[in-house]
Amino acid sequence: MTKESKIITNLKSVRESTGMT
């Protein structure tokens, strides 16, 4: 997994958490 892929996955998780608001 590249560094960029890791960041994208992290952003995806954050969006799911904050997307509930």
TrEMBL record:
* Region feature Disordered, mapped onto this chain: 1-21
The annotated regions of Polar residues compositional bias extend over 7-21
What name does this protein carry? Transcriptional regulator
Q: Which domain of life is it from?
A: Bacteria
What organism does the record attribute this protein to? Answer: Streptococcus pneumoniae
